[in-house]
Design a protein that fits this description.
Blueprint: E1 2-6, E2 9-13, H1 25-31, E3 39-49, E4 52-53, H2 56-65, E5 72-83, E6 86-87
Antiparallel strand pairs: 1-2, 1-3, 3-4, 3-5, 5-6
Length: 93
Amino acid sequence: IQIHKTNSSVKVYTYNETDISDKCEKIIKIMKQKKFGEMILDAELILYDNDEPLHRADTIAHLFKNKYKDATLKAKVFDIIHLEKESTYYNIN
């Protein structure tokens, strides 16, 4: 997924640019805190049953079929694409 934060707006998108923000309310609530500036984050969306991470297929089933009622979605960030007014991509020639 990508998490886009601009001012007080936070959106979450899948790899194919589907807006899944409505499925990620807890992630958005955390990202809206003032301590986080404008940014774009690259992350993996993982579904947890208590403290146990579920399979990727379970995460997808939950997103699009709401299969697991008591499970929690968490974002594991692995890259910062944009932070404040700076791009973090560099061309290496």
